[in-house]
Amino acid sequence: MTSMTNVAVFGTGVLGSQIAMQAAYHGKRVIAYDVSQELLDKLPARWEWMRAGYQRDLADFDADRFDRAIASITATTSLQSAVEDADIVIEAIPENLDLKKKVWASIGAAAPPKTVFTTNSSSLRPSDFADATGRPAKFLALHFANIVWSHNTGEVMPTPQTDPAVFEAVLSFATEIGLVAIPVRNETPGYLLNSLLIPFLNAAAYLYVDEVADPVDIDTDWKIATGSPQGPFEVYDLVGFNVAINIMRNNPDDERLQRFADMLEKSAKEGRSGLSDGAGFYEYDATGQSQGMAPRWKLG
């Protein structure tokens, strides 16, 4: 066992809230930080959405354990309170390099010397903001997949400055919170998962922007021809539009991707950002089962 029992999660969106629950469900004390009370007020609804997922996907789901996990999570807008006794910080804020540098500088100035720093950044290179932490030897990436409780990989990736002992400790921590720890030996933007996934999703975006086919037909073709359980637009719904938008905005010279990101952004602002909202490219019932493609995405 590691000594990492106090976990601070920065960002309580779709994935940050899942990370907080994953750690709490596996016995860690969690503080969930976000910049406004309005964002924190969304957490009770997120817990109930996750409860349905845990119950559906985990054969050994324990409702009492889930309730204890909720009770063990403290939500705060105080950065100082979030980190004052943290053994590990897990950052899950938007994919914006300047924002990450600013937030990590604040965390680094406030956290005690014992604290290990990890980022869940989806596509940025961690070494590009490691120095902002003030302790790059204790900073590395711990990357979660969406629907953490069942898609439970934990990619652990050091930067060239990471202390090898910290790398090994975070691999152990990932296992302690119910992840399959995946060591990524050489730093690469996107780790293993997103290095494979992002080009796949971009290809689907190009097909839609070029009005080649409807999302449901692209998904159907992919699933039948490859035997995959999900098509790319189903994956967009799973990941959530806001994550996809932030990744695409890091490619400003790709005009087709920017047009697609504009479409996603409009939908997200209307409260239709994917599975967690009950609507994205597809519409979903209360249990998360697809009810078919949302008519708004049909071409023509």
Automatic annotation (TrEMBL):
Which Pfam families does the record associate with it?
Answer: 3HCDH, 3HCDH_N
InterPro entries annotated for this entry? 3-OHacyl-CoA_DH, 3-OHacyl-CoA_DH_NAD-bd, 3HC_DH_C, 6-PGluconate_DH-like_C_sf, 6PGD_dom2, Mito_3-hydroxyacyl-CoA_DH, NAD(P)-bd_dom_sf
Q: Which UniProt keywords apply?
A: Fatty acid metabolism, Lipid metabolism, NAD, Oxidoreductase
Highest taxon, organism lineage: Bacteria
Per UniProt, residues of the 3-hydroxyacyl-CoA dehydrogenase C-terminal domain are 190-284
User: Which chemical reaction does it catalyze?
Assistant: a (3S)-3-hydroxyacyl-CoA + NAD(+) = a 3-oxoacyl-CoA + NADH + H(+)
Domain spans labelled 3-hydroxyacyl-CoA dehydrogenase NAD binding: 6-186
Q: In which pathway does it act?
A: Lipid metabolism; fatty acid beta-oxidation; Lipid metabolism; butanoate metabolism
NCBIfam families under this entry? PRK08293.1
The protein depicted here goes by the name: 3-hydroxyacyl-CoA dehydrogenase
Output the lineage of the source organism.
Bacteria, Bacillati, Actinomycetota, Actinomycetes, Mycobacteriales
